[in-house]
Amino acid sequence: MQNDHERLHFSQSQHLELNNRLTDIRERIAKTAESAGRNPEDIRLIAVTKTASPVLAEHLLTLGIQDMAENRWQVAREKLVHPFAARVRWHFIGPLQSNKIKSIASAFSVVHALEDAEHAEQFEQILTSLGKHMEAFVQVNVSGEPQKHGVHPENLHLLLQKLQNYKFLRVVGLMTMAPLTRDSIEIRRTFRGLANLLGEERERLSWGNLQYLSMGMSNDYELAISEGATHLRIGRQLVSLEDTPEGGESR
Fold this sequence. Notes:
Mean pLDDT: 91
Low-confidence stretches: 1-8, 243-251
């Protein structure tokens, strides 16, 4: 639990810096969305708090961030015991492990890294027993990089067919990660590829719930917005004031 000593570790100047960073990101989101002819209100900002302390995460909440993401259950549960966590909509963005799915299903509202039918069935069974609904994004390896997680595009339709009739695990969209490169053309190609896949599958499956695109992180969220992103996963630009590297899959 958080105590007064922990609170002292997050100074007024840090809170001001956090507010400035968040304001800048929100302004960039709005400007990019408007340039693309989109409504900024249609874009959800998810703060990736995997390297952030519970204190910083709570300050994000006071600044209006209600969506936060974690990629490891062992780290996430340290934040989830704090009182503020009950007011957060928690997203799980890391690779899934069978022995952690029950904990994730119990504690999180959204999962962004669904990539196979076996894990989906586990979620559905556990959620059914809990009487709880959960939203999910299917992760797609659009760029084809061997080190990346996600279903390959040619296998996406078959997987979605298997998930379409679930009652408690509700697939609402697709997720991807762009290559770690400065080549904006390559990044756009990945994001546009996911958007095209979403449109194709909505039409093929007549699936109205399949409508969101989780793509775009600290390095490339403006490109993602211009290609139709609805959910942005931004970590480093918010949490690095604690001098912790963002790393991993939420750059």
